[in-house]
Amino acid sequence: MFRKTHGNFKLNITSRHEDLSDALTSQVEAKIQRVERYLGHITEARVILTYERNLHLCEVTLTAPHLKLSAKSSSRDMYNSIDSALERLEIQARKNKERRVERRHAPGAKASAVIHGLIPPSVDGEEFEVIRSKKHDIKPMTVEEAALQLAVSKNEFLVFSDAETDKTCVVYKRKDNHIGLIEPEY
After folding, report:
1. Which of 2, 99, 113, 171 fits a 20 to 30 Å CA distance from 183?
2. What is the mean pLDDT of the chain?
3. Which letter, b or e, does each residue of 86-107 get, where b requires 16 or more Cβ atoms within 10 Å of its Cβ?
4. Is 164 left (phi over 0), alpha (psi -120 to 50) or beta?
5. Where are the alpha helices (H) located in the chain, listed in sequence order?
6. Does residue 150 contact residue 139 with C-beta atoms inside 8 Å?
7. Phi, psi of 104 (to 5 degrees)
8. SS (H, E, C) 161-186
9. Residue 126, helix vs strand vs coil
């Protein structure tokens, strides 16, 4: 068994039924560093090298923050098995990175309607966009009922229909731990 702290991650290489040479160890380290380019920060790498029935098996598990990748490969040569398993991991890591980059750089859903008076058109060339839209059911209730419902919820505000005036109102949590009320005038 080979254990080493390599850079910022722990590297564990276990060899079963065969001696672990320095060349195999350096091969594994070099290939893991290629995969690390796509993952950024690997916390742990576990490699199990096994020789069974004229086949060399390589199992690799890489752990990164919020991600765990693994791959297996077998061939008649241990170096080919290591290359193949880590090539599969490199493909997985590359696809994962591409997905993360696409999500980060994907344009948010543009609002189909312009919200007049709420969002300034643009400031110094910057455009504003609605990045999230959510629909709420407006239930008729009194201001006291709305305040009680807001107090027990995790939400910062509650939109409701005032049962007495039949107007749409909003209660919201203030920074001073009180509840505010917005009553629109039509």
Report:
1. 113
2. 81
3. bebbbebbeeeeeeeeeeeeee
4. alpha
5. 22-39, 78-105, 143-152
6. no
7. -70, -40
8. EECCCCCEEEEEECCCCCEEEECCCC
9. strand
The residue type of 132 is R
Question: How many C-beta atoms lie closer than 10 Å to residue 70's C-beta?
Answer: 14
Enter the tokens of residue 59: 């199992």
Judge contact between 53 and 39, C-beta under 8 A: no
Return d(Cα 21, Cα 169) in angstroms, integer.
Answer: 74
Rounded Cα distance, 105 and 7, in Å = 30
The conformational region for residue 17 under phi > 0 = left, psi -120 to 50 = alpha, else beta, is left
Map out the domains of the chain with their CATH numbers.
2-105 (3.30.160.100), 134-182 (3.30.505.50)
| Residue pointed to by tokens 């991600």 | 67
Q: What's the token pair of residue 32?
A: 């893991």
Record the pTM.
0.53
Do 28 and 13 meet the contact criterion of CB atoms below 8 Å apart? yes
Two structure tokens written together for 177: 């731990």
pLDDT tens digit sequence for 59-101:
999 988 888 889 999 999 999 999 999 999 988 888 888 887 7
Whether the CB-CB separation of 36 and 42 falls below 8 Å is answered with: yes
Instruction: Name the packing angle between helices 22-39 and 78-105 (round to 10°).
Output: 10
